[in-house]
């Protein structure tokens, strides 16, 4: 990447993709506990069972920087360890075998073997992956021709070894499915569905194609001769698309289930085939002639039995079983009697379904949230059960189809959910809560499983209890009675009338008065001192409460009071109003002894901190003192040089709170002592303390809010954390996987004070006060710092817009091949409907009735902050729904303020009539005009205007409506009966306008195939003139955004984000008055005279659906936020200094050639980010952030290459780029 470029961006992912392409289960940690591993784009995620039954939490997520195509788990045969390995097939042209290391919570790459070219190619294996059930071999196959087999074995040290690849190629052959047969310990066999197209390719008449046969082929690996042969072939149904393994050896008859169109057939080399039909749905709205395919399936083996669960494209699950012939002792003879199929339940359509031994079914849904179900009943009844005796083996023979009525059967129930936003179709950023940071709003999902989502930076908080107090509280503490107690015993509060209020923790929380605390004064600090003594610091002195009830008092000097205090179990430090600092320690007899000399400060002391006593020591080494002169000083409290200056740091404001605590540190690889500082200006600082010299270094800052910051230490997820309170509460903690320090707001109201709380019901809680109420809180989880709330929608959302002034959104939705509401109602009320056919099932589970060529569409009004509207389901719902006529689909939406209507705002919706996708066709479209009523909560339809083609884009422009329709641009104004066309530009783009962006009179049009076209509207001539286009074809998938007046950013269907810029000289020429000089331009290479310049090009490996210029953090720089179809959210942060560009270029280069932390799947990173064109002007922040996870020695080696910078400086730079732009 040349450093002469004038624009550089830093790419970061703020929400990884959530579209699961495959899921596997196994005992990856070497224990009896089963884990789940999923593949989402380039991310591998491992889930472990949570604390509550039926819940799974992500334990590890790793970006492999490669496209994960296939996964397979296997256990090495003959090993004593119960541990499963993971085989990953990717686009690297290599086979990767991974092992999960639970002690380090990471994936270790065991083997990486190259077998072909990188990329996703027809003839390079990796599309299909199958393993032998006994873990002895695996086969990888390409779409065409090539198959390779690896023998998996172990050496003398019981370590996994892998052989050289054995070839099983067959030219001019297409593969449709691959599976490993269960043959016990005989030679491994792999089964494939293949089509030989050699004759079809040479036949110009097409007759050979019509007669082509699909074959089931067995490939046998001879372990003795070490080669692969085609053992057996058989012709199967031409529509076959999936194979399922049948248990073999002592567990079953072996073989495969071949799934095709309305057909499931059992086949094996030594058995006669058996076939059953896939039952069709029965109902008034169902098409009785529509056939189903199997899209997902699994085999589950139990102790003495096994069964299959298969799923159709409707989501219906069927239980398939092989009934075996049994002898007189009720033992299986190995002969199959029949094949049976029975409707089991209906769940959302899945890409993978997995059954866990704990009794749960995981459904990796194609769209929407991922679901866990618990099995309730596996018993079988005679109803709706069909056997192979009822069907011919050849599906082409005439026979009667079978039907069933879908509905809940009570076999499974929903237990937990994993949030997912797949697919995201549009995204907006707005600060509707009027908080410091904006919220991100998206629409996602398909059909009735669609959602309107609100994403907010923060951690979820559960409120355990709330109690009223006798007055407004000012501070709160908790303490135990003795160090050996597992839980806290007292809650101590200071209330507004300068009194102390003590509550006892037990079965009930109640006030107590016999604790020894002085309640007539306000409290400044509370501490469990020594093993079983209590300490209370108040403005007039220190009260030492001994275990026997005796009290020792230390009184403040005359005319002076205590203004600040800090304590730990062995030390106490106080600051007097005169500016003196007094230090105490607990002596060997348990008494509090004052150090003779006092330290007088030059300014009033505002806060103090000692920190906890480190394990194995008798005291904390340092005392931090904050003063009103905007400084923090570090003093030694060692008896030999007590209260001696160690270091000082100047601040930008007066410190309001200090706290010393050790936390995990990525630079040192262990625990490091940090000083947390809160300022009156609302700024938070974290400074490292040198544990030997006491020097302060590596200052990190963050603005938390306009109010002074208060600090206290709490516990979250088994680790120490810092609670920072300003205009909202924040939690600072070390991320579990990377140990990177994160400061995240809590999703809760403003708190006055908070303290750590341990109770039997809440081992890690927070007791907090706000006003005159006491609240007990817990932090839900630290795994994600984005809160996700959703509102169900009716159909698949296409686009949405925000009201110009109100916190309301308007979502257009449309589903193809789905019956509209009026059509469904008409069918359900028909005269031929019999009992049971008119039952309306929940569409979010069972889907809407299908209707080929039908469209169902509507526009809905959504209030993100509406309260629960359906008390039975406790879900939110849209405020208003307006359905369109059948076969009319909403495809564009916008809000426009017409200047001719006194700046009144309207909603415009563009629809297409009878649209088909392949081949593309339509019968024109309409522009519907709606007026906002009831403060925007409802819509009033006014009129619709006929258009020759569907209006793809609607955009407000200079008090009028700008419409992108086909290849043309039009400008409309308000009309009483229909919109009035004011101007039109023909053939603005070569193909189809799919996006518009405007700034002033400049218009950027996005073509579906040919990048962008810059246009300008000349007001005096009332004309639109195009003046600049691109020389490269780019397949746009979203509307562009104008980063500045000359620069536009957009994304294409190949997963690229790019920035193009109109040359400055051309831009100035266009802005001159008049259009004569533009009309005289000559065409150049079938385009305009001028071309844009490519500034940035970066492959993000997700299809962008929206691009926005926004700011995500208060006071942060503007960034470009993009959303991806798979649920990804990412940002591009502009560099502002050449020094930073050169630093991160060098860091990225060193990380790419780093051998200590290479990409897991073996993909070359530069090629990965330059998949379709060379990357330009962008640095991969996700790769740079992997620097913090490297071993210490590798970090230091890279730091030396980066102009001898320190490791801590590099890590600070990396952290600053994320915290100052996003979260």
Write the layout of secondary structure elements.
Blueprint: E1 9-15, E2 22-26, E3 35-40, E4 43-49, E5 56-63, E6 68-74, E7 85-90, E8 94-101, E9 106-114, E10 128-131, E11 137-141, E12 147-154, E13 160-162, E14 166-167, E15 173-180, E16 189-196, H1 198-202, H2 207-210, E17 214-222, E18 227-236, E19 242-245, E20 256-260, E21 263-268, E22 271-276, E23 280-281, E24 294-301, E25 306-312, E26 316-326, E27 332-346, E28 350-356, E29 360-365, E30 370-375, E31 385-387, E32 403-404, E33 412-418, E34 424-430, E35 439-444, E36 451-457, E37 461-468, E38 473-479, E39 490-495, E40 499-504, E41 510-511, E42 525-529, E43 533-538, E44 541-545, E45 551-555, E46 562-567, E47 571-576, E48 580-586, E49 592-594, E50 599-600, E51 605-609, E52 622-627, E53 631-636, E54 644-650, E55 655-664, E56 671-679, E57 683-689, E58 696-703, E59 710-716, E60 719-725, E61 729-734, E62 741-745, E63 753-757, E64 765-770, E65 773-779, E66 786-792, E67 797-802, E68 809-818, H3 821-828, H4 843-846, E69 850-862, E70 880-883, E71 888-898, E72 904-913, E73 925-933, E74 938-947, E75 951-957, E76 960-965, ...
Parallel strand pairs: 1-91, 23-32, 82-86
Antiparallel strand pairs: 1-90, 2-3, 3-4, 4-5, 6-7, 7-8, 8-9, 10-11, 11-12, 12-13, 12-14, 15-16, 16-17, 17-18, 19-20, 20-21, 21-22, 24-25, 25-26, 26-27, 27-31, 28-29, 29-30, 30-33, 34-35, 35-36, 36-66, 37-65, 38-39, 39-40, 40-41, 42-43, 43-44, 44-45, 46-47, 47-48, 48-49, 48-50, 51-52, 52-53, ...
Domain RSE1/DDB1/CPSF1 second beta-propeller: 463-779
GO cellular component, one term: spliceosomal complex
Main location: nucleus
